[in-house]
Amino acid sequence: MAGSRITLMVPREPLEKIIGWPDLHGRVLPRAAPMTRLLRSLIEGLYSTAGELTEAEASGVRENLLFLLRGGLTGRQNNPLEDLPISQPVRSRILDYINENLTDPLLSPQSILQRFRVSRSHLYRAFEADGGIARIIREKRLDRAYRFLLTQPGKPISFKEAAYHCGFRNGTQFNKAFRERFDMSPKDVQLIGASHVPADPIDFSYQEHISKVARSSLVQSQSEKAGHFDIETRQLVRA
Questions:
Q1: In the chain, where are the structural domains located?
Q2: Rounded CA gap, 123 and 110, in Å?
Q3: Predicted confidence (pLDDT) per residue in 158-171, tens digit
Q4: Does the domain formed by 88-192 have CATH 1.10.10.60?
Q5: Half-sphere CA count of 236, side-chain side, radius 13 A
Q6: Contact (Cβ atoms closer than 8 angstroms) between residue 148 and residue 166
Q7: CA 54/CA 60 separation, integer angstroms
Q8: CB 201 within 8 A of CB 147
Q9: What is the pTM assigned to this prediction?
Q10: What is the pLDDT of residues 76-111, one digit of tens each?
Q11: CB–CB of 116/16 below 8 Å?
């Protein structure tokens, strides 16, 4: 097939999903690499038999093709993809990945490095303004725990159970981190109840909810003090 070219079009979404990186423009696979030779053989075979494959067979071939392509792009020891900075779309996908896996205790910066095949320095740099990737995971888990406790009023839930529900391995560490973030214990939050909690957690502002609770407590305290003052005044008048 010297002098000829076969163009293979692969949908972007499944390619990004299996490789974990959107910007592959200009990438060239080493011609002599074993995975490249296997990939070439598959593409040539697909070219000659594509019209004879059933839909199920074509789907199976596509999966194998993506697998080989991933091996060719990421199988080398020095992965050039790891040298590229993290783009905004990939950053968004990493955040989505974190949100979808908060209950998994194995979710960590290391698991993200393996999933998206980026360098540690680029991952940390991309989330440096947010306090780091580890902090993002921890605070998202704590926010999830806060909302979980709000929606379980009157139920005997230990902080260990809440910790497990939100991906924490250690109940003591969870309790300490929870207090540091919200300035109250998990038990205190559960006593607040589920007032003003929307169905969609995306629309829920934890800090705003805490502010409302603080204002409510302040108003109640002032009201109680005013009541006591009024009673004392009446008693003086009667005397």
A1: 12-82, 88-192, 205-238
A2: 10
A3: 878 888 888 998 88
A4: yes
A5: 6
A6: yes
A7: 10
A8: yes
A9: 0.53
A10: 444 444 445 677 778 888 999 999 999 999 999 999
A11: no
